[in-house]
Design goal:
Blueprint (H helix, E strand, L loop, with lengths): L1 H43 L7 H12 L4 H14 L4 H22 L2 H25 L5 H17 L4 H17 L5 H12 L3 H17 L4 H13 L3 H15 L5 H15 L9 H14 L7 H13 L3 H14 L6 H15 L3 H12 L6 H16 L3 H15 L4 H15 L6 H11 L14 E2 L10 E4 L6 E2 L2 E2 L3 E6 L16 E4 L5 E11 L2 E12 L1
Antiparallel strand pairs: 1-2, 2-6, 3-4, 5-7, 7-8
């Protein structure tokens, strides 16, 4: 009986292996057939336009298995069969070696990288020069060759990078004057954008859009194209298309129809934790709404969105103005406590106008129902009195917070209790917090603008207990040959941080979470051996 059972298992395993083997044989056969078919297409192609698709598919087959040398050998064999293929062969050999170098770096295959790297680089440069010399300026392959040559020099950070970029821009401009195929223009702009060349990419996106407009594209098609690129997170191109679309539809007798469209665009580009956004472009659209719209076009929701967007862009002065407008039009609105608190924070810590800021905190603290922002306002009032050495007043505010909070606002209550312990023990305020307050509030302190710091947050509107990453921008200060070690003096409402306290001052980033809803103010003061170099402040709204 046992023998029969074992025999069944062996038979099943044998059948399974045969099926798997057959499957792989079938896959190899299919791939072989596909290679043969694509090779035939390449050799029999009647003109260059018929070569782009099969060469791209051949590249994908080899690249997905990281067979870069094999692809180069295959391409060389094709050249022996058809000399007319030389521009394409040269380009794809260069591309293959370029990708091979990247692959070796990624996998840290240093043996091949150092033994063959120079040879591969020579092949990239030589083959691209051949491609460029063998193609006309109105040939897409000419542009692809120029683009890859610039990428190569940019990656190498060599002396030819600037010249290659200048050539690329000039050749694309010439190409655009003599072609109807605009995809190479977009591809080049996309690649420039991915390398951080935003100015250059926008130039090319503008050319791309101008070519689209010259093709008699309709307003509806223009709007759809802008939205599609927005969904792809290609914001540079989306914005250029939206600018062209807005210019088309904006007419003196058409303002009522334009305003809702502008509002939708502003909403799309305004700051959000998830999804594409461009706060600067959103504000441009808000300004256009303000310019074209009637009085009252900004309702409470739209005004809050604008103020919030400016705040997240760290345009604090403008954000203050819009929050003040929100308070004026919706004094009983859903966002008024948040707006008043943020206005107070901006006045105190950005504008150094402590008196005005205190006025907004007092207004919140005196409300019958204590909101999360009201609790934080009481803490801020206590903290400012504490910093001014008015300990009696500070204790009044802290104790009022404890009394009114009851079982709520645990994050803020914990801070107030810490400050009370400092007063009772006649101890100074926590060093990090004291340093930040001094840099922010003293009249003779360095003019370090909190709005210009690189402080950022992974989520500005997290849920309670959701992890948030706070990051201070990197600094590369050097003193002679030595890199300067910086200290990061974190303070404010830091929540439940996960960085050990002894490591906190050396860390430019920290992870945290918050137990309670409300607006949390996070501070950092960055110190070098010669003194403060930057100051950061951000506000996180926990829901």
């Amino acid at each position: 009986m046992k023998k029969t059972k074992n025999q069944k298992i062996l038979n099943f395993a044998l059948v399974f292996c045969i099926l798997i083997f057959g499957f792989w044989i079938s896959c190899f056969a299919q791939e072989g057939n596909k290679l043969a078919g694509l090779t035939k297409q390449v050799i029999e192609a009647k003109n260059n336009s018929d070569l782009y698709a099969p060469f791209s598919e051949l590249k994908d087959i080899y690249f997905k298995e990281n067979k870069y040398s094999e692809f180069s050998e295959f391409l060389t064999s094709l050249l022996a069969k058809n000399k007319a293929l030389e521009p394409f062969i040269n380009y794809y050999i260069a591309l293959s070696r370029y990708q091979q170098l990247k692959y070796l770096e990624e996998k840290q295959n240093w043996d091949e990288y150092f033994s063959q790297g120079n040879n591969y680089r020579d092949q990239v440069a030589a083959n691209l020069e051949k491609t460029i010399s063998l193609t006309a300026k109105n040939d897409p392959l000419h542009i692809y060759g120029q683009l890859l040559l610039w990428q190569f020099h940019r990656d190498q950070q060599d002396a030819f990078e600037e010249e290659a970029l200048l050539n690329l821009m000039n050749y694309v401009a010439e190409y655009a004057n003599d072609t109807s195929d605009i995809q190479p223009i977009k591809l080049t702009a996309d690649k420039l954008a991915s390398y951080g060349e935003k100015g250059k990419s926008k130039e090319l996106y503008k050319i791309f859009v101008d070519k689209m407009l010259a093709s008699n594209i309709t307003e509806e098609e223009l709007s759809k194209a802008a939205l599609e690129f927005y969904k792809q997170a290609n914001l540079d191109l989306s914005e250029v298309l939206y600018d062209a679309y807005i210019a088309r539809i904006t007419k003196p007798d058409n303002k009522e129809k334009v305003i809702p469209i502008l509002i939708d665009i502003a909403k799309a580009f305004s700051y959000k934790d998830n999804g594409p956004s461009d706060m600067s472009y959103a504000e441009q659209i808000f300004q256009k709404i303000e310019e074209l719209g009637p009085d009252g076009v900004f309702n409470e929701a739209l005004m809050y969105l604008r103020a919030y967007n400016l705040e997240k862009a760290k345009e604090y002065r403008r954000a203050r103005d819009i929050y003040l407008g929100l308070i004026k039009i919706a004094p009983e609105g859903a966002h008024v406590d948040e707006a008043e608190y943020k206005v107070g924070i901006i006045y105190v810590y950005v504008l150094k106008d402590i008196k005005t800021g205190k006025g907004y905190f007092e207004k919140l603290a005196q409300k019958e129902t204590l909101s999360p922002q009201g609790a934080s306002a009481l803490y801020q009032l206590g903290l400012l009195a504490h910093w001014e050495n008015d300990f009696v007043k500070a204790k009044e505010y802290y104790n009022q917070l404890l009394e009114r909070a009851k079982e709520g606002f645990s994050d803020t209550v914990a801070l107030a209790k810490t400050r009370l312990k400092e007063i009772d023990a006649a101890s100074p305020i926590d060093y990090n917090l004291q340093a930040f307050l001094g840099a922010s509030l003293k009249e003779d302190s360095m003019n370090i603008d909190a709005a210009k710091s690189n402080l950022s947050v992974s989520l500005y509107a997290p849920k309670k207990d959701q992890e948030v990453k706070i990051l201070s921008g990197s600094y590369e200060l050097e003193n002679g040959c030595m890199q300067v070690e910086l200290q990061y003096l974190w303070s404010g409402e830091l929540g439940k941080i996960t960085v050990p306290s002894e490591q906190l001052s050396l860390s430019p980033a920290l992870n945290t979470s918050y137990a309670d809803a409300g607006t949390k103010v996070i501070n950092v003061l960055i110190i070098s051996p010669t003194g403060a170099v930057d100051r950061g402040l951000v506000m996180v709204d926990v829901y």
